[in-house]
């Protein structure tokens, strides 16, 4: 038989009994007994070849069953105890007698287990005051209805606690319920220190189960330890950097007690300041806010002030100042020294800017041999590298006086066609603003001028009739300067660009020829090159010549029509109507006439062009 059989309370227990015998079941007597606590046997079952009897008036009456499984030379007798109870935890004896082989018996112990309910922890709800004299109660832990009796262990921050005189006290007590199950209660008392604030406590219940042990943990409870502050710290909560003027500063006061007391703030003049949640807010601080600040509270036991303090320093940067101040006017070639200073509590860095470009580093600006390009606004920018956003600036205006300067043109030597008009430009600068005049061959020319940011722009229209020189002269109260344009007149080898030649020839045989006359507009391009023919023709005979030329052209046109008609009829050149004359060319006659009036430069051009293939006609 097995030494021990384990079951959970309320379930069925099976206790096997194995035997060997030379006879069958008909030659065996089987009996089951249990031993009471005093060791006395009590029979609960009897079986022989003729009968089976379950004893009455025992604690197992009605709750047992016996099954016999015989085999050749051996067998098994199985005792089943139904709905096990706590009192069933006894020793069972199996006795087997053989009519021929004698008898033998075996013994098995029945163990019954019951898991306890989940442990419940009750902690002290109110705050626990720090006490150096004796332990104070932390809480109770209870585990109910377990079997056998469970054990309780206390833990603080995952470390087990045991009894330590004057420091830790664990007192346990157990209760046997009417059901026979055990309930265990444990009380923990602890000598509390400040470091116990926020510590977690819980209890652990250990119990026996089939084949080993089980464990249950209670929920974790935190304790609140109250104790007064004996140290107070005042510190800058924000910003987390050096403080500068214009910042919003927060000072926070913290004590080492629990809970935090309500602190009072005051400045170096001992003026009490309003706070929210022990935080003092100073907005848009200036250097005047620098100094000693303190916060304090009163000890509830000694009624003495416990305070903390800190020194606040507000960095500053005063507005930049340029010395000497004001606008400065210099003559070309002169120099200057200007200083820029800004008083600051920290090291500064100064640069000089002009039109967004750095021109110098340091608080001194030195300029030598100034020219017009150096005129403008100079700004000094002072920054504090240690604090981003801490900067100031100042500026002054520099004006440069001097004689005029003419911007060199791309070319002062030009070649232009005779009778063309060229536009010459001249740009000059100076202070005062220069005046520009144009001259050629000692004569003053009509010109136009515009004043710009860079100076004066002037231009003149020059009619080219021969080689000539044109000068641009710029002057002001400080001097004058000029530049010379040299123009070479070139006689065109082709028809003038202003002369347009066009001939319209009909596509069919026609006795007439169309003449196109093109008259250019009055506003000629500045670079237009005209012919010099009209200038050489006397104005009184111009009309007569034109009429004669027109009559001649008309006669030539009529003659051409007649010749074309005879050609088509085969009356000339022996033409039979099929002769190919496409390779023959007529001679070209061009007649060009330009007319000029007193007010305009108009040209009338008439032309007859015979340079057409007969096939095209």
Describe what you observe in this structure.
This protein is mainly beta. 5% of the residues lie in helices and 46% in strands. The chain contains 2 helices and 45 strands. The strands form 11 sheets. Strands 29, 31, 32, 34, 35, 37, 40 and 41 form an 8-stranded mixed beta sheet that branches. It has a 6-stranded mixed beta sheet with strand order 1-9-8-3-4-5, with no helix packed on it. Strands 13, 14, 17, 18 and 19 form a 5-stranded antiparallel beta sheet that branches.
Descriptive tags:
single chain, 617 residues, mainly beta, 8-stranded mixed sheet, 6-stranded mixed sheet, 2 helices, elongated, disordered C terminus
Number of helices: 2
What portion of residues is helical? Answer: under 10%
Radius of gyration, Cα only, in angstroms?
64 Å
Class by alpha and beta content: mainly beta
Distance between the termini: 143 Å
What is the residue-mean pLDDT, rounded to a whole number? 81
**Main sheet characteristics:** 8 strands, mixed
Shape designation:
elongated
> Oligomeric status of the shown chains?
single chain
Strand content: over 45%
Low-confidence stretches: 495-542, 573-617
Number of extended strands: 45
């Amino acid at each position: 038989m097995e030494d021990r059989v384990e079951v959970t309370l309320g379930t069925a227990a099976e206790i096997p009994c194995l035997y060997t015998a030379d006879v069958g079941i008909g030659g065996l007597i089987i009996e089951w007994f249990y031993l009471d606590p005093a060791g006395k046997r009590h029979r609960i079952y009897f079986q022989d070849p003729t009968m089976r009897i379950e004893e009455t008036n025992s604690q197992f009456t009605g709750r047992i069953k016996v099954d016999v499984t015989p085999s050749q030379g051996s067998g098994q007798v199985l005792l089943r105890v139904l709905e096990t109870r706590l009192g069933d935890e006894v020793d069972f004896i199996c006795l087997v007698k053989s009519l021929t082989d004698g008898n033998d018996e075996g013994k098995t112990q029945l163990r019954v287990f019951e898991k306890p309910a989940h442990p419940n922890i009750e902690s002290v709800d109110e705050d626990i005051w720090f006490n150096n004299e004796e332990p104070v109660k932390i809480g109770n832990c209870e585990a109910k209805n377990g079997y056998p009796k469970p054990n309780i262990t206390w833990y603080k921050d995952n470390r087990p606690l045991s009894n330590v005189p004057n420091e830790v006290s664990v007192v346990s007590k157990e209760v046997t319920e009417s059901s026979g199950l055990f309930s265990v209660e444990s009380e923990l008392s602890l000598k509390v220190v400040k470091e116990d604030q926020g510590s977690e406590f819980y209890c652990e219940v250990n119990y026996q189960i089939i084949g080993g042990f089980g464990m249950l943990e209670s929920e974790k409870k935190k304790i609140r330890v109250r104790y007064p502050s004996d140290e107070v710290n005042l510190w800058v909560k924000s910003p987390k950097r050096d403080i500068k003027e214009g910042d919003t500063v927060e000072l926070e006061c913290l004590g080492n007690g629990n809970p935090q007391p309500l602190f009072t703030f005051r400045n170096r003049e001992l003026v009490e300041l309003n706070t929210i949640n022990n935080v003092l807010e100073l907005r848009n601080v200036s250097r005047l806010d620098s100094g000693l600040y303190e916060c304090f509270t009163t000890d509830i036991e000694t009624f003495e002030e416990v305070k903390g303090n800190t020194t606040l320093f507000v960095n500053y940067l005063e507005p930049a100042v340029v010395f000497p101040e004001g606008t400065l006017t210099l003559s070309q070639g002169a120099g200057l020294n200007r200083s820029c200073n800004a008083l600051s509590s920290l090291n500064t860095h100064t640069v000089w800017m002009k039109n967004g470009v750095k021109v110098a580093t340091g608080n001194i600006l030195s300029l030598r041999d100034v020219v017009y390009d150096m005129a403008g606004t100079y700004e000094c920018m002072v920054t504090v590298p240690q604090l981003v956003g801490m900067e100031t600036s100042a500026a002054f205006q520099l004006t440069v006086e001097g004689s005029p300067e003419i911007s060199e043109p791309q070319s002062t030597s030009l070649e232009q066609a005779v009778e063309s008009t060229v536009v010459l430009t001249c740009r000059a600068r100076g202070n005062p603003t220069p005046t520009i005049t144009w001259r050629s061959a000692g004569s003053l020319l009509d010109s136009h001028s515009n004043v710009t940011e860079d100076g004066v722009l002037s231009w003149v229209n020059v009619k080219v009739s021969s080689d000539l020189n044109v000068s641009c002269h710029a002057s002001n109260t400080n001097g004058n300067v000029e530049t010379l344009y040299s123009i070479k007149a070139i006689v065109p080898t082709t028809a003038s660009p202003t002369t347009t030649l066009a001939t319209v020839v009909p596509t069919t045989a026609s006795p007439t020829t169309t003449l196109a006359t093109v008259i250019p507009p009055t506003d000629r391009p500045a670079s237009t090159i005209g012919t010099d023919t009209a200038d050489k023709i006397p104005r009184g005979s111009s009309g007569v010549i034109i009429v004669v030329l027109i009559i001649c052209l008309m006669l030539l046109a009529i003659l051409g029509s007649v010749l074309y008609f005879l050609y088509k009829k085969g009356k000339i050149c022996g033409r039979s109507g099929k002769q190919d004359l496409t390779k023959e060319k007529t001679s070209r006659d061009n007649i060009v006439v330009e007319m000029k009036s007193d007010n305009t430069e108009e040209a009338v051009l008439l032309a007859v062009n015979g340079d057409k293939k007969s096939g095209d006609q």
